[in-house]
Write a structure and sequence with these properties.
The complex is a heterotetramer of chains A (98), B (353), C (221) and D (542). Chain C is mainly alpha-helical and 221 residues long. Chain C contains six helices and no strands. In chain C, helix 1 (30-71) packs antiparallel against helix 5 (149-185), helix 1 packs parallel to helix 6 and helix 5 (149-185) packs antiparallel against helix 6. Chain D has 17 helices and no strands. The chains are: A mainly alpha (98), B alpha+beta (353), C mainly alpha (221), D mainly alpha (542).
Chain lengths: 98, 353, 221, 542
């Protein structure tokens, strides 16, 4: 059972690391709300999505431990997000040119 | 003409023959090889199999060859497609409305409509397709000209073709649309220019029958009944004024059941004028696309929402209005005529002179 | 069980089975279980992804009318909910970290905090939706029918997407309650933690979806 | 099933009879038993849908109404499509043969999540039961594509069939998750990625599509339900929605779904051809990787289904190009199979004949697919009976044929008995003749403009339809022969022994039928999955 145990308990991440990530997430939320008051027209949605993506990566890497999992997990994620991205892009090929 | 529809047919068929030819050769080749191997290397003749793992050169060859063929065939299809999606600018435009389960073709001249499509020969025809917002998808398909396009609610799509000889062809609905999908058929009549003119003249004459006061004022007259006022009202008025004339579907749309404060009067003739000219400063627009008989029919229908208290007009008033708008003789309908055809005609006239 | 017990562990070596002879009990394979969970999360992602695709395409078609709709939504409420969810994500991650350190009591308290956040989120959401309904802004309402098509589709998407998200919050909350019970009963321990980790992953996914929903709906006005 | 132990040469105990009684089946977590349970249900639904198909052909025997009204025909057509696609061909090979053989072929005793596996079966059954309930309520007439706005407008009860499709989607998602995780975690330690049998590669690629694409269609169908029952108009043009977006979301799943169907079938072909030509598969890595490429590129081509839908012209061009590209990995597979036969030692047994039938029919399906990828020709033949024929050549001629091919190949392993060889040949021949007689006329009718989903047709198409209907009878006779042969084989076939075809994959090392617990020890990979020379080389070194 020892080896099973070692399979399960990866890095013990210090509590304060989680809190630091949380602080970063909260401040990014503040930034995205703040930016929304600037009059950016259609760029607003792009900025919002970029900030959201950064937040998303933080959550995935630290809260969801992907940084400490083996590489195959990253590949699984890349496949999923990549497919979504490609679906989105290819659908744009219709709507942009309508 | 730079692009003619017979080129659509030709390009499409050409692409098809390329596809069928290359596919056929490959298919027969594969199957022949298969049969040959099965006989040549049957266990009886060839008891010990060779030990071959693979061959990189062969693999690369049969990756690159199909890729080249694919790109070539893609291009062949693209050529015809380019033609199909770029109608000539001087194309004769006809609007198509599909609904369960019938086609309505609307011509540019004076709102003429028909349920079968009539077009002049040797003239590019552009069809603008749509479906009413509460209907379902349809697809107009003319196999003889290899063209097809869906009719989508709330959207305009298009296609074009050109008939190169006089004849009649099938029109199908190709997008599944329910119970009578298989019966949603129509015909395409390609007519000579003269026959087409004759047909159009007759349709226009039917549509712009000179108006007489007695018929226009009597809601039960044959002419009024022929106009199908309920359908016209539903199509053009109900979205703002409501199915029961209650108004208020958009801000300021009048309630036809109450007769207070009508800006331009409440009589049949007043409503007719409103339909003809619209109301300035409001969303009420004019409806020149409706024939005079249509407008009288709608006016009667609108007036019927409020039975009591309406001021009636007399036959004399009506006669006066008919004279004012010159409704007693058929109007001159402007023909949509391609520039090059007009030039040719003028040249011919000049030559005759 | 020796045959299928050939679970490669982290190093790729087979792990001897804890229950030899019992075919129907699979060996404990935390990496496999997490992998399964991640694959499941991908399906959730694509499920919301389809709705995000719809959102983007309609945004292209209706652009500024979406902004009109967005102005009607309360940034304060949305922002508050964002903070609540982020905090709940933190407490859930900390709860797992506490379990890894064999601190069961702290872990349970942190899970309680997570559930409180979940309930708080739902309460704010209920007020928000309630406000919309009170203004006659709900599907099939007359007021909704009078709006422009762009605003109609914006609110349709708003109700559907935040609705599905709220459903996931509820499911996630129930899962956390369930896993907390298992911790209490001693079924989830530091050595067999994967069940709790997977619930945690699910909860973070709920957070992830909201991270995108919040700016797209509340901040484009 | 337990009658299997009467024959002397069969193993006394196998997964079939180690436990007895219906309950032991319904609560089993054994991947082999779950595979058999899928097999039974899938065959039942196949026969039902086949009868519906025969009824449609009979209605179309002559022009004019025979015995079905428009709506009745549309309902029968929808049911035929829904059952064949969601209950037969999508789960078909993965759920039956994947469940049974994937763990055995990678040297595991079960899938990674056995209870989830059973849950998938119950999801399948729940979907199936709902589908049957919807039939009892009068069926639906929307076509299996459930296109809006018609699916929002029809009078038919849509709630139950859409829920059924949703549940069936979950069934295949869960199976997909199970397969991917199993391949990653449970391969016997000595088996590297490129030591896996190609059938496993096919299943692996398929499972990925199921995971990635199925949720998209799942939520789309739910959105249609929400639109219909709660008045939220996501796709309703009157409320600012776009009906074409539904088609995008629908085909994002439903086009890759055809690869979900066909990749496992190609995997079976890749197993059969080397075994019967006693020769290592040619270009193993190319076949394996082409499976992934087909899955990958195949996910990017969905909008060629919408070539006339009114989407933007440049979108159509892009998707046409991508569609052409997907033909390349398919071609690579076909060429490699051919090369495998070269200098082999070929014995034409029934499974190999099925593989040849697959090559013939699927090639026709593939080549006619090019006419759909090509922009201008597709505009002409889109939504005509040409599509119907093309689709049936790939799906039925390809996947359906290989479903039966897999049956005839693995039947001895699954039941420990052999079917009648001569009857098998009769069955395949009838199947093959009937199939071509049924669908070739539809190609021709389509080229001449016969639209699809028509309950009736103009007299000029009469002869095509008459031929086609006659073909449907021959085809049905062939399928009947094939099924009866197998059923008789289950009951009184001769014992087959552990390795009747002389294969080299791990499943050939376990008894037929296998015991519940198939591997007592962790199996060692002493030779590759297609290494038919290993006996001789071992003897030589000894």
């Amino acid at each position: 059972m020892d080896s099973t145990h070692s399979a399960d308990s990866h890095h013990l991440i210090p509590y304060r690391a989680y809190v630091a990530v949380w602080l970063a997430l909260v401040s990014l939320t503040g930034v995205t709300v703040g930016v929304s008051y600037l009059d950016l027209k259609h760029a607003a949605i792009l900025v919002a999505v970029v900030i959201a993506t950064v937040k998303c990566v933080l959550v995935i890497l630290y809260f969801m431990h992907i940084r400490y999992e083996r590489p195959v997990f990253t590949w699984i994620l890349v496949t999923g997000f990549g497919s979504f991205g490609i679906f989105l892009l290819l659908t744009f090929a219709d709507y942009f040119y309508r | 003409m730079l692009l003619a529809s017979r080129d659509i047919v030709q390009k499409t068929d050409e692409a098809w023959y390329w596809l069928a030819g290359i596919s056929g050769v490959l298919f027969v080749g594969i199957m022949a090889t298969l049969v040959y191997f099965v006989f040549k290397y049957s266990r009886k003749r060839h008891p010990q199999a060779a030990d071959i793992h693979g061959n990189l050169k062969l693999e690369v060859t049969w990756i690159i060859l199909p890729t080249i063929i694919s790109v070539f065939l893609f291009y062949k299809g693209y050529e015809g497609f380019l033609l199909m999606r770029n109608p000539p600018e001087n194309a004769y435009e006809i609007d198509v409305e599909a609904r369960q389960w019938a086609w309505t073709f609307r011509y540019p001249e004076g709102g003429v409509t028909s349920s079968e499509l009539y077009v002049p020969v040797n003239r590019p025809i552009k069809l603008n397709l749509t479906t009413p917002i509460d209907d379902v998808l349809h697809s107009l398909y003319i196999p003889a000209f290899r063209v097809k396009e869906d009719c989508v609610p709330g959207m305009w799509t298009y296609m074009w073709f050109e008939g190169d000889k006089v004849g009649t062809h099938n029109i199908f609905c190709a997008e599944f649309c329910g119970q009578d999908h298989a019966k949603m058929l129509s015909l395409l009549h390609v007519l000579s220019q003269d026959d087409y003119n004759e047909w159009l003249d007759k349709k226009i004459a039917d549509r712009f029958k000179p108006v007489e006061a007695a018929g226009a004022m009597n809601p039960d007259s044959d002419e009024i009944n022929a106009c199908d006022a309920p359908r016209l009202y539903k199509t053009y008025c109900a979205s703002c004024h409501g199915a029961d004339g209650q108004g208020g579907m958009v801000e300021g749309a009048r309630d036809f059941r109450k007769l207070e404060k009508w800006k331009q009067g409440t009589s049949i003739l007043d409503i007719f004028k409103t339909l003809t000219k619209g109301v300035d400063g409001t969303q009420m627009r004019a409806f020149p696309n409706l024939s005079p008989w249509d407008r009288f029919a709608v006016a009667h229908y609108v007036a019927s929402f409020a039975q009591k208290g309406r001021t009636d007009s007399t036959l004399e008033d009506c006669a006066q209005l008919i004279a004012e708008y010159k409704l007693d003789k058929p109007p001159v309908v402007e023909r949509v005529f391609p520039i090059d055809a007009a030039m040719e005609e003028m040249a011919a006239e000049a030559a005759n002179r | 069980m020796s045959g299928s017990a050939a679970i490669p562990d982290d190093a790729g070596h087979p792990v001897p089975d804890a229950h030899p002879g019992h075919h129907d009990i699979m060996p404990y394979d935390p990496v496999g279980a997490r992998m399964g969970m991640w694959l499941f999360l991908l399906t959730e992602l694509l499920l919301f992804g389809a709705m995000f695709i719809a959102f983007c395409m309609y945004y292209i078609q209706h652009g500024w009318r979406f902004s009109l709709g967005s102005q009607e939504l309360s940034t304060a409420m949305g922002g508050a909910n964002t903070l609540v969810l982020l905090t709940s994500s933190l407490t859930m991650a900390l709860a797992i970290a506490a379990m890894q350190r064999r601190n069961t009591r702290l872990s349970q308290q942190l899970m309680n905090a997570t559930i409180v956040c979940a309930v708080g989120f739902l309460v704010v959401k209920a007020f928000e939706w309630g406000g919309k309904f009170a203004h006659g802004l709900y599907p099939t309402s007359d007021h909704m029918a009078e709006l422009s098509q762009g605003e109609q589709i914006f609110y349709s998407l708003y109700f559907v997407m935040t609705g599905f998200h709220a459903l996931h919050v509820i499911i996630g909350g129930v899962l956390i309650l369930w896993v907390k019970r298992r911790v209490t009963k001693g079924l989830v321990t530091t050595d067999r933690l994967v069940m709790m980790e997977n619930v945690g992953l699910y909860w973070h996914l709920v957070d992830l979806v909201w991270i995108f929903l919040f700016p797209l709906f509340y901040l484009i006005g | 099933m337990s009658s299997a132990d009467t024959a002397p040469a069969l193993p006394k105990l196998s997964y079939l009879n180690e436990q007895k009684g219906l309950k032991s089946w319904l609560t089993t977590v054994d991947h082999k038993r779950i595979g058999i349970m899928y097999l039974v249900m899938i065959l039942i639904f196949f026969v039902v849908a086949m009868l519906l198909g025969l009824a449609m052909r009979l209605e179309l025997l002559h022009s004019g109404k025979q015995f079905m009204e428009g709506t009745t025909y549309n309902t029968v057509m929808t049911l035929h499509g829904v059952i064949m696609i969601f209950l037969f061909i999508i789960p078909g090979i993965p759920a039956v043969f994947g469940n049974f053989f994937l763990p055995i072929m990678i040297g595991a005793n079960d899938v990674l999540f056995p209870r989830l596996n059973l849950a998938s079966w119950y999801f399948y059954m729940a979907g199936a039961v709902l589908a049957l309930i919807s039939v009892a309520l009068g069926g639906v007439d929307t076509g299996w594509t459930f296109y809006v706005p018609y699916s929002g407008a029809t009078d038919a009860n849509l709630l139950i069939p859409l829920l059924a499709a949703f549940l069936l989607g979950w069934s295949s998602i869960l199976t997909g998750i199970n397969f991917v995780a199993t391949v990653h975690r449970l391969r016997t330690p000595s088996m590297g990625w490129f030591d896996m049998p190609l059938f496993v590669w096919g299943l692996y690629a398929t499972a990925w599509i199921a995971i990635i694409a199925t949720p998209v269609v799942g939520i789309t169908l739910v959105l249609v339900l929400i639109e219909r029952f709660m008045g939220i108009g996501i796709f309703d043009a009157a409320k600012g929605g776009d009906p074409i977006l539904f088609q995008h979301l629908f085909w994002i799943y439903s086009h890759p779904a055809v690869y979900v169907m066909v990749l496992p079938a190609m995997g079976v072909v890749s197993e059969i051809i080397p075994v019967f030509s006693r020769k290592r598969i040619f270009g193993y890595k190319f076949i394996a990787i082409s499976s992934l490429l087909i899955a990958g590129i195949g996910s990017l081509v969905w909008a060629h289904h919408m070539n006339t839908s009114g989407m933007a012209n440049w979108g159509r061009v892009l998707f046409s190009f991508l569609t052409f590209l997907v033909s390349v990995p398919s071609a690579v597979k076909v060429f490699n199979w051919l090369a495998t036969l070269y200098k082999g030692s070929i014995k034409v047994d029934p499974p190999l004949l099925f593989a040849f039938a697959f090559l013939f029919l699927f090639s026709i399906g593939g080549f006619t697919g090019l006419t759909h990828a090509s922009l201008s020709t597709d505009i002409h033949i889109h939504d005509t009976s040409y599509v119907v024929a093309h689709f049936h050549y790939t799906m039925f001629g390809g996947v359906g044929t290989m479903f039966f091919g897999a049956m005839y190949f693995w039947f001895p392993k699954m039941f420990g008995r052999m079917y009648k060889r001569s009857t098998a040949f009769v069955g395949i021949t009838l199947f093959f003749i009937g199939f071509n007689c049924l669908y070739i006329p539809l190609f021709l009718a389509g080229l001449n403009g016969m639209p699809r989903r028509y309950a009736d047709y103009l007299p000029e198409y009469a002869s095509y339809h008459a031929w086609s209907t006659v073909g449907s009878w021959i085809l049905a006779a062939g399928i009947l022969t094939m099924c009866v042969n197998l059923l008789q084989g289950v009951r009184k076939g001769k014992p087959a022994g552990p390795n009747p075809w002389g294969g080299s994959t791990l499943d050939c090392d376990v008894p037929s039928p296998p015991p519940t617990h198939q591997f007592e020890h962790v199996p060692e990979m002493t030779h590759g999955p297609y290494d038919y020379h290993h006996h001789t080389t071992e003897e030589v070194t000894a």
